[in-house]
Amino acid sequence: MNVSDIPSDPSQPFRVGEWSVFPDRNEIQRADQNLRIQPRLIQILRLLALTPGRTVSREKLLDSVWSRRMVNDEVLSRSIADLRQALGDDARQPRYLETIPKLGYRLIADVEWLPAENLALPMPATGTSALPEQKHSSSASAPIASPMTGKRPVRHAIYALALLLAASALLWTYRHSPAKSDLGQRLQHAQPLSSDPGWELTPRFAHSGDLLVYAELDPERAHASLRLRSRDGRVNRLLGDGQHYDLCPVFAPDDQQIAWVRRSERGCELLRAPVLGGIPTAITQCAASVFSCPDWLGEWLVYTAEPLDDDSGAGLSRVRLRDGTVEKLTQPVAAQGNDTHARFAPDGRIVFSRGVEGERLLYQWSAAEGERKLPFPPSMVYGQLWLPNGHVLAASDALGFRALVAIDPDHGGSQLLGARGARHPDLAADGALVFEQASYDANLWWIAADGSGLRQLTRSQRYDAYPRLSPDATKVLYQSNRDGPESLYLLDLHNDQEQRLPLDPTMRWAQPAWSRDGTRLLLTRYSGGETSLWLYVLGSEAPTAVVGLPEGAHDAQFDPDGVHAWFRTGPERSGPLLRFPLDHPASIEAGPDAVEHYQVSTAGLFLTSLDDARLQHCPDGRGKDCTALPVVLDPRQRRNWSVAAGSVYYVSAQSAVPDQVQRYRLDTGTVENLPWPRPGALSRALDVDP
Question: Does residue 322 fall inside a structural domain?
């Protein structure tokens, strides 16, 4: 193979022997089989396929495939064995992978690089994503500490800090209308629209197709301005004075005006102004606590409005621009979440997403039928629009990673198109597509109580989140999507060795919890849109299902009595809390209703609910006689708190210093500021040494 023949696109499909390999989908196919395998196995196979017949050293494979260097040869050997099993290969009489003793491996089957193609895929049903994104960057210059040894003189914490690496706009250079059959192929040829540093968000085309407008954040992310530019770059200017926080621009149907969202201390406001310049005119108020972009069709602007009351989520409204008439279109209840990012079809139908965090569903609204849920599994959804053929294009992580997916809103078929990392797409009349290209990572960090010893524990380029320290503080259990759908990993804090738990890789596993003796784990499994609880004994070969619980059981924790366990049912955002005996799960006891997040400890039961910003404490440990603590949680950090050693650790909404992590002592009622960074992920990103 010549150097010029080596494919630069890591998603380009190829054929190895009788198998066709599709890296974008983590799939291998042959005449009678279609297998989805771990992304690392795909990476290994691709590295070997780049130099067929030549030995690739073990060191190169470890360096190239594993983002962390604290892995040993056993991990690679196990992965090679898994790859052989998937290919139907035999190490004693290999047809694909040959072991070169003491050196490495080589691929002995024929290799052929295939043209990129777009194949229809059945979409797996998914449940709540436990790895939400956060537009937040956390860094520190503290010295890196060595692994802990001996007794721990001070308390420590584990953090999940999310880092946005890049967010920029990409543009198709093709000028013809998109046919469904070639959409995925053309996405592979997307070209950067802008190479400017910083964040460029929520791009939209003018109806003429020559101009675009998007939001651009300043380096400190204190302000966001609108930038107007042409495809060829001849027009390129900022709109406004750069002293506001303006997002989500959209052109008027005649391209003479732009409407957008302005956020400030006063709340959320919709404005409009002429494209050529002029004083902005206020349109109406929008939901202050919800990130959602408007859309404009004819004389109507659709947007997300403030909730009607405490029992409601933020629903869609539309305003008639000529006279300011507002019509309420949708009204979700609070437990359903908010309706966001509405987009018009030419006939007036609206597609939008509803939900919270990773449990967002796609809906359609029409004047004739009202709202209707689309046949697509819950996921993180980052914008959607209508395609010319009546299908919906959504940026979703339903496959375990964020990408563009075409969805049939009537029959439920869906198709992975590509553009991994895409968010908030927009389509021009001539078929050009523009979207954000966002790259994140979220890693785990270790910090001492006095703020010293900050060190990075994981170095995945995906999400490592939901850290849970073992009772003896020697290990941390966490979930990650580094190998595809979320699974669970165990990291030894003494030697930095980690292992993936032996869980079904086709399922999503989340919300782990330790038993008090550190020998067992309670896990939540997501499958087919349903959740169930499983028990895993450390060192065993597989978990076992907890039988006898109601449908939708998730988010379990062991009771300190060692006899019972707690769990929630219903939506991820809020649901009833229940308790059951471990030896007879069907004997369920009712606990508090409408629980958003909870933790049970020897000091009792602690919980939050949607209708109260304070943390509730139930000392009896049964959810009875609960009282509100003088702990007011930051509304952005309502699930990022931890109870340990008679104290509550949380991000305060009342501190004079923004994002201040505080410690509330249950015995004295005193509050102490801690020199810790705030968690950088939305949910359960903090745990404290028990």
Answer: yes
> Would you say 427 and 416 are in contact if contact means Cβ atoms under 8 Å apart?
no
272: in domain: no
Handedness of CA 280, 284, 289, 295 (dihedral sign): negative
In whole angstroms, give the CA distance from residue 392 to residue 405: 8
Q: Which sign does the torsion angle of CA 666, 669, 673, 678 carry?
A: positive
The confidence score (pLDDT) of residue 445 equals 87
Q: What share of the chain is helix, strand, coil (3-state, %, to 5)?
A: 10, 45, 50
In this structure, are 491 and 633 located in the same domain? yes
Phi, psi of 391, rounded to the nearest 5 degrees: -85, 170
Averaged pLDDT, groups of 10, the chain, 690 residues long: 55 91 86 78 91 88 66 73 87 90 90 66 35 32 31 58 54 44 71 73 91 84 86 86 89 96 90 91 92 96 92 93 96 87 97 84 95 90 95 87 89 85 91 82 81 82 84 92 83 90 89 95 86 95 94 94 93 86 93 90 91 86 85 83 92 82 94 87 80
pLDDT for position 181: 47
What confidence score (pLDDT) does residue 221 get?
62
Question: Which residue reads 């797996």 in tokens?
Answer: 124
| 127: Cα separation from own chain's centroid | 12
| pLDDT value of residue 64 | 79
Burial code of 377-388, b = ≥16 C-beta within 10 A, e = fewer? Answer: bbbbbbbbbbbe
Is residue 124 helix, strand or coil? coil
- Residue 350: which domain range? 288-373
Least Cα distance to 436 among 484, 407, 403 occurs for 403
Measured at the CA of 489, the angle between CA 487 and CA 492, to 5 degrees, comes to 175
Please give the DSSP secondary-structure letter assigned to residue 482: T
What distance in Å separates the CA atoms of residue 680 and residue 677, rounded to the nearest whole number?
Answer: 8
d(CA 169, CA 437): 6
With contact defined as beta carbons under 8 Å apart, do 402 and 417 qualify?
A: no
Are residues 42 and 16 in contact, defined by beta-carbon separation less than 8 angstroms? Answer: no
Same domain, yes or no, for 369 and 464?
Answer: no
Which one, of 578, 516, 501, lies nearest residue 546 by Cα? 578
CATH of the domain at 469: 2.120.10.30
168 located within any domain: no
Same domain, 363 and 449: no
**Pair (526, 647) in one structural domain:** yes
Record the tokens describing residue 400, joined without a space. Answer: 């375990």
What integer pLDDT is reported at residue 116 of this predicted model? 57
Strands 97-100 and 455-456: unpaired
In-domain check, residue 424: no
* Sequence-distant (≥ 6) Cβ neighbours of residue 382 within 8 angstroms: 395, 396, 402, 422, 423, 424, 436
Residue 627 pairs in a beta bridge with 617
Of 63, 83, 113, the position where a domain reaches its end is: 113
Q: How many CB atoms sit inside 10 A of residue 301's CB?
A: 24
Q: What is the 3-state secondary structure (H, E, C) of 171-237?
A: ECCCCCCCCCCCHHHHHCCCEECCCCCCEEEEEEECCCCCEEEEEEECCCCCCEEEEEEECCCCCEE
Total domains present in the chain? 3
Last residue of a domain, one of 373, 404, 426: 373
Here the tokens at position 303 are 């947007």
420 alpha-carbon distance from chain centroid? 13
